[in-house]
């Protein structure tokens, strides 16, 4: 057994989400949103090199040394898979390992509104799952893909860096490609995917202009495209895509996006009231004639208001979902306020908003 495996097994046994290894510091776990040490001994640069390089292949080691960081997936049979990032910093080498659950959670068990299932069952267009790092985007997307794999079928292509959830064969043919291992980059894989008879393409991260452009083009061609962005709200997601492009292209992109965008699921994770775990809060924007018109006419500032007034179409605002979690006694008002857009909605009677919370 590799030395690292002992740390990773302990991480799983304690229910932690991440293992942090840093030169000059003891090993630490993120446990229930807190980072806690699991040993007293500080690890030296040489200690960590030995621990990390033991589980990395030659290519990963060379890339870490030449680029000063590398992403890859690591698996312990019978335990779990881990999303891994090895990097260099001012003290020396370091790494973070995030556990990927062995089993994909069925969509109906994620406590998400029915519209998420509806968006999973579309036959074309673009659906985006957004949120900060560690907000559960990968888990939600994996459950949506699993729903298609279980109930619908077709050819699903995933492009990821690295592959996180491995989808077993069910009704669908699933092709999973890993950037830097099976393809050079997201853009190359997307170009190829459009020639590989796909019904669904999942783009693990829409991180640059060319990838976003190709994803929009694939959606225009009649493919259902799932993707992720690091934005905190549905309206900001639309602006982020448009602002990625040069000003002279933005009118064309507004037109493409207005036709292709079918939904945005903006997601955050919150501590549960009992302190034993975390739960997701989401905002949902659903595409349609009104949204298309707002995007084409550059009136995206009206999107937030539309989400609040069109709940009958499956839309839900982040603040409304947070209220729902409070009513279900899953989170505290204080925790909800930390993630809310309008924090005044979550004040106790007589309580005033802290100026730092604006």
Description of the molecule:
By secondary structure, the protein is of the alpha/beta class. The chain folds into 2 domains: 3-100, 2-Layer Sandwich (Beta-Lactamase), CATH 3.30.450.90; 107-344, 3-Layer(aba) Sandwich (Rossmann fold). It has helices at residues 3-13, 45-53, 58-67, 114-120, 137-151, 186-193, 209-220, 234-243, 250-260, 289-296, 303-309, 318-327, 333-339; strands at 18-22, 28-31, 34-37, 69-76, 80-88, 93-100, 125-130, 154-160, 172-178, 200-203, 224-229, 261-271, 278-286. The protein has a 7-stranded mixed beta sheet, sandwiched between helices. A 6-stranded antiparallel beta sheet has the order 3-2-1-6-5-4. The longest helix is centred in the middle third of the chain and has 15 residues, at 137-151.
Please write the string of helix (H) and strand (E) elements. HEEEHHEEEHEHEEHEHEHHEEHHHH
Largest sheet: 7 strands, mixed
Instruction: Please tell me the CATH architecture of the largest domain by its name.
Output: 3-Layer(aba) Sandwich
As a percent range, the share of strand residues is 15-25%
CATH class categorisation of the largest domain: Alpha Beta
Total helical segments: 13
Name the average pLDDT: 93
Q: Are there runs of 5+ residues with pLDDT below 50, and where?
A: none
Overall radius of gyration: 21 Å
CATH level 4 superfamily of the largest domain: P-loop containing nucleotide triphosphate hydrolases
């Amino acid at each position: 057994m590799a030395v690292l495996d002992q740390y990773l097994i302990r991480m799983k046994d304690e229910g932690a989400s991440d293992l942090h290894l840093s030169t000059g510091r003891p090993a630490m776990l993120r446990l229930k949103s807190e980072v806690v040490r699991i040993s007293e001994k500080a690890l030296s640069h040489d200690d960590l090199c030995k621990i990390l390089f033991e589980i990395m292949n030659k290519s990963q080691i060379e890339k870490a040394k030449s680029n000063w960081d590398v992403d890859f997936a690591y698996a312990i049979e019978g335990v779990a898979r881990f999303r891994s990032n090895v990097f260099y910093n001012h003290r020396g080498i370091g790494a973070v390992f995030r556990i990927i659950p062995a089993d994909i959670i069925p969509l109906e068990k994620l406590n998400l509104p029915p519209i998420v299932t509806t968006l999973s069952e579309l036959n074309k267009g673009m659906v985006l799952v957004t949120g900060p790092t560690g907000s559960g985007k990968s888990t939600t997307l994996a459950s949506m893909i699993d729903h298609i794999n279980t109930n619908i079928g077709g050819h699903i292509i995933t492009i990821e860096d690295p592959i996180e959830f491995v989808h077993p064969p069910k009704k669908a043919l699933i092709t999973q490609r890993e950037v830097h291992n099976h393809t050079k980059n997201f853009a190359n894989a997307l170009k190829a995917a459009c020639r590989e008879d796909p019904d669904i393409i999942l783009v693990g991260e829409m991180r640059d202009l060319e990838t976003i452009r190709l994803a929009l083009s694939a959606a225009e061609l009649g493919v259902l495209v799932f993707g992720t962005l690091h934005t905190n709200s549905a309206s900001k997601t639309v602006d982020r895509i448009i602002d990625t492009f040069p000003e002279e292209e933005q009118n064309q992109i507004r037109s493409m996006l207005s036709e292709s965008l079918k939904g945005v699921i903006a997601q955050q994770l919150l501590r549960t009231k009992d302190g034993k775990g975390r739960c997701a809060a989401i905002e949902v924007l659903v595409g349609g004639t009104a949204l298309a018109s707002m995007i084409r006419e550059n009136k995206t500032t009206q999107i937030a208001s539309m989400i609040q007034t069109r709940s009958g179409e499956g839309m839900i605002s982040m603040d409304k979902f947070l209220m729902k979690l409070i009513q279900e006694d899953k989170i505290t008002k204080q925790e909800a306020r930390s993630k809310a857009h309008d924090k005044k909605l979550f004040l106790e009677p007589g309580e005033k908003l802290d100026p730092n919370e604006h």
